[in-house]
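User: quick one, fold this
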Amino acid sequence: MSVPTSREGQGALPMYQQMIAQTLVSLAEQEARRGQVGRGGFLQVEPRHVEAWMRLEYGTLDHLGGDRWTRAVREAAEDAMAAPAQMNEELARSEGLTRWRTR
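Assistant:
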């Protein structure tokens, strides 16, 4: 699985969203190895929604590293997958994580 570093027509993802996307790919690969493909849907969740849930829980993200980072991404992704799409969008906007454009 490849790590998305940009969105078509929108340029590069912000740094934390790139890191989150990479972690989501790793989580999806772990599920696949355990035969749980499709259970989590880690590749379906938007990194900015995950970042918004992480910021809601932790405020800043700089102090998260290693296993704490992975656990935080997993928990935030699960929160984002369980929440209605509108809630994810509103939370992302409230954290200043709007959709980006390069044009």
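User: anything notable?
Assistant: The chain has one domain: 12-94.
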